[in-house]
């Protein structure tokens, strides 16, 4: 069995020629959420995957085996419910309402401009039908959103390819730059003499 303990999001930084030579592994959403599982790659090798806890493998990510070989992850087609707005008496806004209600139930959702996808659930399908949405059972890859507080650069299955190191504060308070003569701010740290 080949051991795998590293994942490179979307193969970032790897040469195209290396990715072209890599074997592949198709995994459904339930398996890609696990940090420990066994799989078989496209060359028939048995893989023992041991990723850091909380790691989610996305389609396009690359696993690195202990022997240095690379394995591309593909999102395997699986049973999902595809939700679309009714073209006769609905609007695209209906999808926003549906995403809101599904999000309140903490349901994994794949968001697309013209449809949503969720895992099969007859109770949710009934709710969506009652909202005049079209719900169709299909077999397709499933890449739900990570959520606003997810880490690792993956949002909706896409790696942005750059690091964000700027402030995401939304206070919108303008602070003028300090003049060279202005006193330096007092910083609390070890040995400052204040009780914390």
Describe the structure concisely for a colleague.
The chain contains four helices and twelve strands, in the order E-H-E-H-E-E-E-E-E-H-E-E-H-E-E-E. The protein has helices at residues 16-21, 29-32, 93-104, 122-130, and strands at 2-8, 23-27, 36-40, 46-50, 62-65, 70-75, 78-85, 110-111, 116-118, 133-140, 154-155, 158-159.
Structure description:
The chain is of the alpha+beta class and 196 residues long. Among the domains are: 2-75, Urease metallochaperone UreE, N-terminal domain (HSP40/DNAj peptide-binding domain), CATH 2.60.260; 78-140, Alpha-Beta Plaits (2-Layer Sandwich), CATH 3.30.70. The chain is built from four helices and twelve strands. A hairpin with a 2-residue loop joins β11 (154-155) and β12 (158-159). Residues 149-196 have low confidence and may be disordered. Residues 144-196 are annotated as: Disordered. This is Urease accessory protein UreE. Belongs to the UreE family.
- The CATH homologous superfamily of the domain at 2-75 corresponds to Urease metallochaperone UreE, N-terminal domain
Class of the domain at 2-75, according to the CATH hierarchy? Mainly Beta
Mean pLDDT: 82
Number of helices: 4
Topology as H/E string? EHEHEEEEEHEEHEEE
Tally of DSSP β-strands: 12
Distance between the termini: 52 Å
For the sheet with most strands, the description reads:
6 strands, mixed
Shape type = elongated
Which radius of gyration do the C-alpha atoms yield? 23 Å
Q: Report the uncertain regions.
A: 149-196
Subcellular location: Cytoplasm
Protein name: Urease accessory protein UreE
GO molecular function: nickel cation binding; unfolded protein binding
Family: Belongs to the UreE family.
């Amino acid at each position: 069995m080949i051991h795998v303990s590293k994942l490179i999001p979307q193969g970032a930084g790897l040469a195209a020629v290396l990715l072209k030579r890599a074997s592949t592994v198709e995994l459904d959403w339930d398996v890609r959420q696990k940090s420990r599982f066994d799989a078989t790659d496209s060359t028939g090798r048995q893989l023992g995957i041991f990723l850091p806890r909380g790691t989610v493998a996305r389609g396009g990510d690359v696993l690195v085996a202990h022997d240095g070989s690379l394995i591309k992850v593909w999102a395997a087609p699986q049973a999902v419910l595809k939700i679309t707005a009714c073209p006769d008496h609905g609007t695209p806004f209906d999808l926003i309402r549906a995403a809101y209600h599904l999000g309140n139930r903490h349901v994994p959702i794949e968001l697309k401009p013209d449809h949503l996808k969720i895992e099969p659930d007859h109770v949710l399908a009934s709710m969506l039908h009652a909202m005049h949405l079209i719900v169709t059972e299909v077999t397709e890859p499933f890449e739900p959103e990570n959520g606003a507080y997810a880490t690792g650069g993956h949002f909706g299955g896409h790696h942005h390819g750059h690091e964000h190191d700027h402030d995401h504060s939304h206070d919108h308070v303008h602070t003028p730059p300090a003049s060279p003569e202005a006193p330096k701010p007092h910083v609390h740290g070890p040995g400052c003499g204040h009780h914390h």
